[in-house]
Every structure is written in structure tokens, then in C-alpha cells.
Design goal:
Split_barrel_FMN-bd, alpha+beta, Pyridox_Oxase_N, oxidoreductase
Amino acid sequence: MNGDIQNLEEKFTNSYSESVEVPFQLFGEWLALAEKNEPNDPNAMSVATVDENGMPNVRMLLLKGYSPQGFVFYTNFESTKGREILAHPKVALCFHWKSLRRQVRVRGNVIHVTEDQADEYYNSRPRKSRIGAWASKQSRPLESRFALEKEVAKYAAKYAVGDIPRPEYWSGCILEPLEIEFWHDRAFRLHDRFVFKRDSAEDQWDKVRLYP
């Protein structure tokens, strides 16, 4: 672990010429380590939104990609989550890798993936998952499990052969981060915390070490 902390210090002190890349490079290294050590879903993250009254909502999703542009996930935009993102396109993420005693917190603004990107990812999903995207009226009341199974059977018959088109209401989000915090557990709760902040997606990062 001491070597990991030294590496974090080195990333933290990199020059501004690399400032756009640094937090994403560091995130990639931490995620790769999680992929080797976490038994289930190392790309799992909590996603927080707010409703029309400012009441927060949080749930677990899977990260489907990342780059210096941001963090990518997909959703049904007719779901509670989707409607809240459309109304208030500011989102927070949190990755917690318990076995590694690390977490990454992200806050920023949401933009949408392109139609081609959404199609490409949708078509990469298992066929039954694509059927499920049609069958599930996500977040809305469901009278019984049987009713859901009927919807699945209906769309399975409708798209029994050939391609399954992507529903118009199903697409992806890119969280363009304005803040990324890296947290690493240390003894006696004297944790290491480093935060990268910027005012817009075009700006360079300001880098600060925080008290635990």
C-alpha cells in the first residue's frame, strides 16, 4: 500500500501540462486494480440525482466507459432517474472498493451520448436485455411479476428474429466532471484525500490535498 500512496503523490504533483489527463489516468489505475481484486462488479457506482423538490435520490449503476470527456452510463429516460437527470442535469457518482479501502467521488454536469454511441452499446447487450428495455416501464407501478413476464413475452415474439431496435427513451449519459476526489484508507482514520476541481469542462484542474 505504501507504494500505491507514493504513486498517488506522484500523480498529484504532475505538471499542469498533463492536468486534463491526470485524474482520469489515476482513476483508470484504481479501476484496473479493482477489476483484479473486487469479487463482484468493480465498475459499480452509486448515482445521485435530485427531484423537483430538491430531494436526493441514489441508486447503484454500472459504469460503461470513461475518458477525459467523462464517465458513461445508460438509462431509461422515462424512469425516475432519467426524468430527474433531464430536469436537473447535475449528478454525483461514488465508487467504493471495499476490499481495497478506496473510493472515488465525482460531481459534474450531464450531457448525452450520440445516437450512434447509444445504438452501438445497446446492440452489444444480450438479446434478452434488449427485450427487457422494451418490456420494462421502469420505475412505474407493476401489478404483478406475471404482468412483467407477459410484456417480456410480447416483445420477445415481436422481435423473434432480426435486429431489436433501441427504444427512443433509452440512451446514455456522460458525466463531465467538475470535481473528482480520491480517498484512500489510512491507519487511525488519517486517510489520504486528494481532490481535483475545475469550473468547466474546458478548464485545467486545481489539485488540493484535504484533511481526512
